[in-house]
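sorry for the late reply, my laptop died twice this morning and i had to redo everyting from scratch. anyway the thing you sent over, i finally got around to it. pasting the sequence first so we're on the same page, its 259 residues, then the predicted structure underneath. double check i copied it right bc i was rushing
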Amino acid sequence: MPSIKSVDDIKSSLLRPSLTSQFYVEIPVPNLDSQFKQKLQENGVSWPTKDQDTINLLCSEAVLPGSSLATFEINNDRTGVTERHVHRRMFDDRIDLTFYVDAENYLPIKFFETWIDFIGGGATESDNKLINKNYFYRMNYPDDYTADQGLKVIKFERDTYKSSSQGGYNRPTGSVLEYNFVRAFPLSITSMPVSYDASSLLKCTVSMSYIRYVVTMKKASESLPASTNPTKVSDLKNKSLSQNFLKNGAFNLPSSNVA
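ok and here's the structure:
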């Protein structure tokens, strides 16, 4: 029934919408005890160390996944009535992630190219190089190239880091939505045009496959790292990225996955 609302009720319910630019992505890898770790090291990617944190930060765009219910029709139980009964939950078959490409190491391109190359068994034998005209594929087993857990998209809000400073760090407060994807691996890397026209940021878009996702409501302190001064995080991010992307200039990026 309609009821009288106070100004505080209106502010808390209507004047605080969730913003699309506040999120955090965690990128996983398959079992690091497999040959994949060695392949990463051969290509100059150290994992899990600062390179993983860098790729997480460089993710500029993600998608909160969707799902639907598959049904079948029942026409004969009741005269003139068509019923639909659910028999399966259907998940989106992929999630697209977009990354800024750093100018120093081209880290997102290098990382995902290595992962896809490992899936296809690329150059796993000394006499079978990709450049050879008679190169053949020998796919690895899914358990070797899929990440059972670890691919996460965490949705939070701008005021998540409003808590008081404790020991030089600010602890995230409140609740977040955490999407955890099961058995993920990269399906494709979208082509990236380059030209002599006006310069723009080079971005790498990767499609990740998964079998399902689990969404949970968690405390922010369980899903998000502590930050330094929360009022300066966006400025620090812009400064860091600009130094990596353009050594001789500066630009301002819109806020994306850091509050």
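The chain is about 25% helix and 25% strand.
thats about all i looked at so far, will dig more tmrw
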